[in-house]
Amino acid sequence: MNSASKNACLATCLWTIGLFSSGISSATPTEELNGVGNLMDFLDEPFPDVGTYEDFHTIDWLREKSRDTDRHRKITSKSKESIWEFIKSLLDAWSGWLVMLLIGLLSGTLAGVIDLAVDWMTDLKEGVCLSALWYSHEQCCWTSNETTFADRDKCPQWQKWAELMTGYTEGAGVYLLNYFLYVLWALFFSFLAVSLVRVFAPYACGSGIPEIKTILSGFIIRGYLGKWTLLIKTVTLVLAVSSGLSLGKEGPLVHVACCCGNLFCSLFSKYSKNEGKRREVRTSVSYYFPLKTLWRSFFAALVAAFTLRSINPFGNNRLVLFYVEYHTPWYMAELVPFILLGVFGGLWGTLFIRCNIAWCRRRKTTRLGKYPVLEVIAVTGITAVLAFPNPYTRRSTSELISELFNDCGALESSQLCDYINNPNMTRPVDDIPDRPAGPGVYSALWQLTLALVFKIVITIFTFGMKIPSGLFIPSMAVGAIAGRIVGIAVEQMAYHHHDWIIFKNWCRPGADCVTPGLYAMVGAAACLGGVTRMTVSLVVIMFELTGGLEYIVPLMAAAVTSKWVADAFGKEGIYEAHIQLNGYPYLDQDEFTHRTLATDVMRPRRNEPPLAVLTQDSTTVEDVETLIKDTDYNGFPVVVSHESERLIGFVQRRDLILNIKNARQKQDGVVSNSVVYFTEDAPQIPASNPQPLKLRRILNLSPFTVTDHTPMETVVDIFRKLGLRQCLVTRSGRLLGIITKKDVLRHMAQMMNQDPESIMFN
């Protein structure tokens, strides 16, 4: 599967495991969990919106799982009553497969269209195809009958803008006019992209992966996966990549695919009314990974790949973006430069993360963040002005990586393949020996060195702007450039010094010993790993991108070395760093090793007001409304009485608000003095008192509890694996306090000497 097809169905395929580095911290619980209980009392049917969540809050996985179990029991029970109910149960069971089919079709189609549009608009900055305006440069010359092999990139049908306007193909004026129009097109594309994002869909900016990881862990961000976001993200992604900025489309395609999943989930009540089931569709990554989700993910990936293959955006009948075919095996001695590339990747990843986070923090805390359009225009202008003179930065980043990965055969015309050939060579085309570098190679090395410095610097300021921006391709480009330079250096050393001990045993004179393209591929994997902290999944990604299955050891060596070096300076990858910067409630997979207890983290702490609670049968409607007005808690524990503080259950704030509002409007006799009770039977009250309000149906009768002496290591593990929103702290059944997800995250930040106030959401 190529880059586009992978990312098109990332929300539903196993490859997402690598992209999300260390997985999703808060995942759906298993069916075998005991003590979840029936969260709703269905003797009283709940009205719409009960059980839903406020924006920027975390869902309750246990609650969602229990609701889905109850729904499934109802359907199973009714299916035995009639043929129609049985058919409805079958439709419900197959709705998941239908959703996956639709996701695969739409994701694959969007990926193919985006690829084709990016190729066309990228070439539009330099010229136009006269025979068909919608053809890219490559497609235009494919259809030409006047193209020669030596000049296969030149054809009469394709004309650069200066040639079209002036009729001349060479000269200083022609160069400057092409230069000016290149910059002008880049500015126009980027301005249009940032304007569309700012006006119609602010959530369409950025990579989307930090937010997607947080959403999949249970966080609610209304509108982030909406229809407008899908439309604007798709359009502006094409514009942003075509502008020539140092960004890629792979990361944003994850966001696009999740938007597709959310769109089709809204068509089926099974998913639209259950946040947990929605996340089962959006991703296949969690500790809880049912077999049916695996099969459905595979099915969605298959459909997306088939759809993309039908579109054939690359015109080569392959589903691989950077297909490589090397004819020389690698040797054990080459592990040394491979590992050195891994070290470079780790150092680059550390440098990029620290500098990019510092710049993004400055953007958030200074006036710079108030002018997103001006920032995008400025960065685009600088990028275009500096990129045009260098042929390796002028072209699209995907084309650059493809050329760097390529092996130099006898038919290659690239500067990187300008070697001095032996006129007496009679070997087959696929078995060309190492040769001395010609002037074109040395010229290319200088240009690549300048391109490397340019890419390293400009990517730091580009990632995180208010336009769609992925990081996979820019990171791979940095590594591929460094790898190709190292590969050429090793190749020339092996040619000129084959008698050295390091080359003597495996590189004979006249043999094809070193493949510089392989070094570019290894370098790309190393830099991508240094930025994202991926290892095993990174190697799989490189297989899918290149088809180079036999180079598993070099890729693994570089990926592991890159992660070790980067982890020495900090455990966070770029996406985790942006999650922390934005204050999202996301629990990563790092072990918590500090020796603290639940009583050290729970609230209320010393010198704090007592915990806000409700009693089971002695609180009035006015008391509840006052408590809701005076606090901003997401929910309240319910106890027997204020004196005993024996825990009964837990009730959500939103459910209280909706039920009281509904009761005041539709239930006669409910006034401010009405008693609210959560018991099965109404309390004994005088006949003169107003009618009581029963709210047992919204009471969670089995909230998750821990004792005050539970180690925080255990509490963190519980929150991470069960996806808890909060847990109550008790001692012998008596309520002592509460621990929320925000409390856990702030405690972890404090233990790591970080600012606990940076965690803004629960």
From TrEMBL:
- Pfam families under this entry? CBS (PF00571), Voltage_CLC (PF00654)
What's the protein's topology in the membrane? Multi-pass membrane protein
Q: Which domain of life is it from?
A: Eukaryota
So which residues are the signal peptide here?
1-27
- Compartment(s) of residence: Endosome membrane; Membrane
**Main location per UniProt?**
membrane
Where's the CBS domain? 602-666, 699-757
List, alphabetically, the CDD domains matched: CBS_pair_voltage-gated_CLC_euk_bac, ClC_3_like
Q: Which family does it belong to?
A: Belongs to the chloride channel (TC 2.A.49) family.
The name under which this protein is listed is Chloride channel protein
The organism of origin for this protein: Cyprinus carpio
Give the source lineage, highest ranks first.
Eukaryota, Metazoa, Chordata, Craniata, Vertebrata
